[in-house]
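Sequence of Multiphosphoryl transfer protein (Vibrio parahaemolyticus).
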Amino acid sequence: MLKLNKNDITLSQSATDKFAAIKNIAQSLTDKGLVKQGYVEGMLNRENQNSTFLGNGIAIPHGTTDTRSMVKTTGVAVHHFPEGVDWGDGNKVFVAIGIAAKSDEHLGILKQLTKVLGADGVEERLRDAKSEEDIIALLHGDVQLEADFDASLIQLLFPASDMVQMSAVAGGLLKNTGCAGAEFVADLVTKAPTHLGNGLWLVGSDKHVSRTGVSFVSTANDCEYEGQKVRALVAFAACNNAHQSILNNLSKIVFNNEHNKLLDASAEQILALFKGEEVAAPAEDSNVAVFKIKNAHGLHARPGAMLVAEAKKFESNIRVANLDGDGKAVNAKSLMKVIALGVKHGHQLQFSAEGPDAAQALESIGNAIASGLGEG
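Predicted 3D structure, token representation.
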């Protein structure tokens, strides 16, 4: 787990280009006693092999595998560039996290950063950060940028007899996950929900809310509220605007009259829809394959990027799950999501593909993994 302190942060830096920035960061790593002189060459070589830009104004320059022997102690040096640094391909970096890792500890850092990388508004907040504490709070995820919403906040096919029960269950989910207190639930059941059409309803409250979150409850049997059918209820607890992106995606579903896509979805599909992702139909068994990762240090930035690049060559929807991790499938064309799988040497990845070139995609991905994803 990445635990930063003020000594890790260097504010108000500037650099003519990314290579100048990397040299300065490498010097900070050296000055802190984390690496030996010469580690900078590994960092520059890594950047020449593949960009270390991750997204949302963040880059993670680090050394190559053959310079790990130059790492004395695992650690980081974070440089803040309020004016931004051109990292190539039109990408601008406001915070660069130089990593010195003796083994695969950097995978944990990457996994922790994925929540920050996937949230809206991070880039501007990093650019405008005024103190070490601001940057630490953002990178640690202490600043809520997205509403809490995961499988624990979804209850499918609850045998409700009326809207009060639906609201109580939806509020209870938010209470149980720490978003709100009992007073929130009591207030929520008194609120008049808004009908979004086709039996989909929306309700919310800001009473005694500690973290913004969203819950989803569907019914196992038909019930009604004010003469309208109730099939599902979306509830939100709000103490900031972190739920706005979910509400925007919900609005698109309603505007496009795609209620049934949401109402008939599995929990995993609901999570994807609320994030604005396309939901593919379940892949046929013939379009599922499992491959073992042979890379000695797992899927760090470079092999992860190579895997994503391979998946992007194909039109099909491709998802991947780490069978040695939490087993949840993610979009194989998203570097952030692939890195978040925390894949280490020997882990097995299950790929599923759906589309006109699904079989070719799986074969090509398998060949790329077998060849080492650019690491031989």
